[in-house]
Amino acid sequence: MISEIALAVVLLAGAALMIRTFAGLRSVKSGIDPSNLLTLRTAISGSRYGSTTQVENMVRQATERIQALPGVGVAACAVSVPMDQVGIDLPFSIEGHTPKSGEKWEGDEYWRFVSPGYFEALRIPLLRGRYFTRTDTGRTDHVVIVNEAFARKYWLDKDPIGQRMVIAKGLGADFEEPAREVVGIVGSVTEKGLADGMVPVMYVPQSQITDGLTRLGASLLPLSWVIRTNGDPLSMASAIRNEFDGLDPQLSPSHVANMDQLISEGNARQNFNTLLLTVFASIALLLAAVGIYGLMSYAVEQRMQEIGIRMAMGADQGKIMRLVLGQGMRLAIVGTVLGLAGAFGLTRLLAKFLFGVKPSDPLAFSMVAVTLIVVTLLAAFVPTRRAMHVDPVVALRQE
To answer: How does 148-178 read in b/e, with b if 16+ C-beta sit within 10 Å?
Structure first.
C-alpha cells in the first residue's frame, strides 16, 4: 500500500506540474495579434530570384496585387514568421561596445529580414523610432530594428535609437555589409514557441541584405508571408494564390495556414506531453484507490475478531472508525512522504518541459499530497463503515 501510494504521488506530481505549465502557456501573450492572419510560403530558388533587387521587385509587385484584393489589409514577407519553428541567428557587434574577454562578437541572436508592412500585419507595436518603409533600399543607409528584449539585454537603460551595429562580420562574403543604424524598437514576440518566451530579435529590411545572403537563403528556405485580412483568412487563400500564380507560377503558395494554426502546432508537443502525463496520473490514482480499498478491506477482514471483542467490551462506532481509518492514514502519510521525496528528485527531469513553474513547485506538491490523502480516506471509508456495523457475535465467530 505504501509503495502504491508513493508511485501514485510521483506520477501525480509530474502531471500537476505539466498541467500548471499548460495553464501558464494558455495565458502567455505571443506579442502578435493572430486573428484574421494568413501565413504561407513561396519558393524563390533559381536564377530568376538570384539577387536582392530581383526579390525586392517581386515582393513589391506581389504585395501590391494582394493588397488590392477586397478584404485584404496588409501583406508582407519575411525569412520566417513567428511560431514557424524555423530560426536563423547571426552574430553581431555594437559600435562602442567591447565584447567579453575572448569573444569575437557582442552576441548571437535571432535575425530576420522583413519587408515593409511586416510589423503592421502582425500588429507588433512600435515602442520608439520608426518602422521600415519603401525608401529603405540597398541604395540608402542601412538600418536595423530591434525588439524590446534585445534592447534591454544589450543597452540596459540606454536608448538604442541612433546606435550602430555590424551584423555577421567575418562570416564570409555572403554576409559582409556596412554598419546598420538602429531606427526603431518594437515589442517582443514569441518567435519559436510560447514556452521559449520573448527572445531578442534584430530585423533588417529585405531590400538591404546582400545578394549572396539572398541566394543562400533562397536555397535553404522558402519565403514566408503574413497577410492580414478583414475576415476569415482561409476564405481569401484561393484569391491570394491566384495572384501569386498570375505573377509567377514558381511562386505558387504552400503551407497555407492561419496564425492560430501555427500557434497550436507550436504547442502541440507540450499539449501532448501534458495529456499523456495526465492520463497516466489518472490511471495511477484510480489504481491506488482500488488498491487501497482492497488492502483496507483485507485488513479489516483480518481484524474482524479483534473488532468484535472491542465492541463487546464497550467500544463505540467512533472508536472503531478511528481505529481502522487511523491505520489507513498512517500508511497513506508514509507513502505520501516517500512519494514526495521521490517526486522531488524525478520531476527535475521535466525541467525542460516546464514553463512558469519550478520542478519543486510547492503548490503542485501540496495539491498532490492532499489529493492522495483524500483518496485514501474515501477508499478506506467503505470497509470502515462495514466494520462499524459488524455484529459482535458474528465477529467473534469469524475464523
So the answer is: bbbbbebbeeeebbebbbbbbbeeeebbebe
